[in-house]
Fold:
Amino acid sequence: MKLPQVDYEAPRTVEEAVDLLAEHGDDASVLAGGQSLIPLLALRLAQPAVLIDINGVDELSGVSVADGWVRIGAMTREYVAEESGTIAGSVPLLAAALPLIGHEAIRSRGTIGGSLAHADPAAELPAVARALDAEFVVRGRSGERVVPAAEWFEGYLMTSRAPDELLSEVRFPAAGPGTGTSFQEVARRHGDFAIVGLAASLTLSDGVIADARLAFAGISDVPVRAAGAEDVLAGERPSAGLFDEAARRATDGIDPPADLHGSSEYRKKIAAALVRRGLRAAADNADERQ
Amino acid sequence: MDITLRVNGTTRSGSPEARKTLADFLRDDLNLTGTHLGCEHGVCGACTVILDGRAVRSCLMLAVQAAGSEVTTIEGLATDAGLGPLQQAMWDSHSFQCGFCTPGFVMQATAFLSAHPDADEQEIREALSGNICRCTGYQSIIDGVLLAARRNTEHASER
Amino acid sequence: MAEILAERYTGASIRRSEDPRILTGAGRYVDDIKLPGMLHAAFVRSPLAHARVLSVDASAARALPGVVAVFTGAELEAMTVPGPDALMALLSWTGPTPEFSLLATDKVRFAGDPVAVVVAESRYLAEDGCELVEVEYDELPPVTNASFALDPGSPPLFENLGDNIARPHSRNEFGDVAATFDSADRVTDVHIDVHRHQNVPMEGRGCVATYDADLGLMTVHAATQSVHVTKIAIAMRLGMEQDKVRVLAGDIGGSFGLKIGASREELAVAAASRAVGRPVKWVEDRSENLTASGQAREESFDVRAAVSDDGDLLGLDVKMVVDTGSYPAMGAMVPETVEAMFPGPYKLAAFGFESTAVTTNKACYVAYRGPWASETFVRERVLDLIARDLGLDPLEIRLRNAAPRTNPPAFMITGRPLVGVTTRESLQRLAQIVDFPSFRRRQADARARGRYLGVGVATFIEAAPGPRSPEGASGPLGTESMRLRLEEDGIVALFTGQMPHGQSHQTTLAQIAADEFGVPFEQVRVVVGDSDIVPFGLTGGSRSATMTGGVALHGARQLKAKVLEVASHLMEASAQDLLISDGQVLVRGDPASAIGLGEIARRAAVGDVGAGVDANLEVQASFDGGEGGWSGGTHCAIVDVDVETGLVRVERYVAVEDCGALINPAVVEGQIRGGIAQGIGAVLLERSAYDQDGNCQSATFMDYLLPTACDVPRIEIEHLETVPLDADVNFRGVGEGGMIVAPPTLVNAIEDALSPFGVRIYEQHLPPARVLELIAAAGPAQ
Structure:
């Protein structure tokens, strides 16, 4: 499987990249880490006219903290994020999810922004972003805008990024005291995509759940917040019975896709199991972080 | 596109098409056929090389993206004495059979051991779970890596 | 028995001579070959499972810069000789013979069926060219399952057959089947399915073909299990004399039965290279390997078992249907071996077996490591089902029914003697290694806490090569030949038709020859992979340990006798007083007399020995397998089934096995572990999947899942002390056993884990979703 003919551009600045995107629009694909895009090209499932390689745009890398938000440049490599003390300390849910992304060699090249712009609903990072209400900073010809996670994921591999826009940064809120997190997934093998995954975050205050975030990977064409379950959890004390109820609420009415790896019914069942397991783990972690 | 990079300690250049993968560039343009193609969609790990200190899947990079980088392939691991310590340990452990997956395993294990010299068996298995072998059932490969790690620790403590 | 003075290699895990090049990237696989002027081929393939081909327009492809030629199916027919599949011809198949062209001409019969070949300056350009070839298809209803294929109303894949029967129904009976079933206390009746899965070597198929028009010589660099069978296949199809075709093979990245003879694509590439007058390379990519190289094991069984209330397995009556896909190669021949092997090491009073093979619009059935393996799966599954019905322990029911080792040996009801079979010993040894009572306590404890552990066992025998047969040679493919020669540099060269692709022959055969001859291991060279130089041979069927190990042993002995005869003249001593040690010939007790073997060879070559003495230090040895023998054993798996997710973890795996004498224990164990890993893959991960329209759904490694280092546990291997049958050659094969017995071992363990739910398993593929389905269908936990 060899890649099809394609033109290639390697901008050095965000401005150059944006100009190229404005010029080529839908005919262009942005090449970030390449771990998702290059297989599509190799299988000739995608045949863009031009690749805009942003690996040379240095200003897109870096992790910083400001005003309670952790700002991650779109080209920050997944392994760099994995090794980041800032992320480990301030966005523990992201830190929990990162080691589950593929294998080390994938994370050597894969990027935070690339994964979130690719928006595979079975991937780990979209569920984390959705759970934490991350913010997506895009830059286009008309300037910069900030898109909340709830509006970012539009469909299967589709985001609200306009063709002439570049995702430049993703911002995650820093976790407050008493927050416990867990990323759980059911995958066929270690490192595989989740059949179903769950990003869970619980903030406890005096033993009561003050904040609950649950987002699924793999049950729809976008990551899905389990709002019904979150409502049931808020204000309650963690218990097995509560988590069972949350699992029921989270999976009521979902209609997951079916494929070679599992039927819709199967995904529903394991989604419920993941909610129980994820909440238990998050509650345990919350105790540690008090 | 003209590119220059360092491969196995030597400066090399070429003019690959933009669409040519790093794996194909190494194999075809630089005649370094030790790096193998097992799937060309980033799953089997046979194409693993070390680029700027990190193990990467060379089938998932364009050659032009490696311009200016430092690449090590399986051919670059030999020492003046012959086999490098990991390769020696794998030889001693009967790690491989048909050999097709070998370069990818050797490169991935090399990168992993240099960052995690004290890894235990489970950690090594997880680190190598992105490399597929069809012949061995993995035990002999894991044993080779464990032996290399142990020898390295003993060697280090002797100094 | 001849005296071996320096037996220091055989039986030891000598480091492989293959490894220095393998470990440094210096291996030479087909895709590493570059010839001057070499072009690259890619295939235009049908997207449809079943269709007429109305037209093929290659004009746009031919006009693409970099494309040198495009050959359609019709053009290739014009430059080749039609004929049957070479392997089936070699195995003397006399059943229905479908007629089809090399590449598809009037019809395509599976999604991925090659229709045209594009030859270009690079593989990249060849694939670009493929996208420009326009093919017009007229879709036909696809035949995608055996039951439709059996229906006379299903559209026939092959016009000349008129239906989709690749092997017509036939039935054999051994013993009095009717009486045995009529008088049995109980009859169990089950249907068991084995799913489609496949070889998936890490290196796919491929070749580089180059035709010398001046000399009329075709040279093909191949990835193959036999250079001679590939040579014959190419010569037949290209209408060439066999001695005008030379097949070379270097390192091969695994095969497991896939790379035998020459596939349609490889033949097309050879023909194309002859037509364009330049070398042409084709190496299949992973999608081609998964969709078009061939698949295996899709078989279904209706089994009736006649059983006594005490657990005696009195009789079996089996009905088998094989789905051989399209372009049947050897799938139609599998039922014969399944029938012969079905009784295994057990006593049966009666056995009935009937089979049919059908063609369907899926990739063609190819040999996959133990092609008859389903017999062990079905038999060992049925034994467990019976045991569960009767409340018997799985070890107990096997011990009860295994034939005792007697002299003369018991016979399988299908005819072969169970000589030297140590089934009972393996079962007993397993019970010593795995503390079953302790496990049962742990299992009960775990169940009380909602965790489901299970243990499973299964027993097998494999003909590796099989017992001595009254007609002659023990193994398949008759006798094994080897040419051995003492070279003038003192090297003992072994020329063998074996074509190792992971079997480590360059090491194991050298171990045997070095010991027998008296030279250091490094002084033996095993020469493989050139059809001009090596005798006929094929690596497969788990036969090389016996057949090739044996011919190496006897051949080395014969060559040594010749050498000592020559040396006796040169050294003026009696041959009986001479010995070979560390590469030198010396008079016993007189180290100063030592002469290097190289010198002996040089002096013999220049005629120092004088007339009347045979100074040609070469022998053509052959070996019929001696007393042959069975390999076999009992495997055991302990699994942990997560009943919320359906994921199965193999916690422990023990293999008790008997493969005769070991040439190189590390090599033997590697083969066993690799086969077991494929069995784990088959049960938990691997399926060659098609939808109802015949589209392949497992075309990448994202969907066809192979086991990784996290899926295969440490495998404990216990070698039984074997029963020597032959004075010299007691090595037996292990190539296929692991893959044959691991699937039932695992499925038996999974059913045991889920027995509180009342789950019964009648299939081999148990991905997590299926495990949950089985639990839900069975009902709440008891």
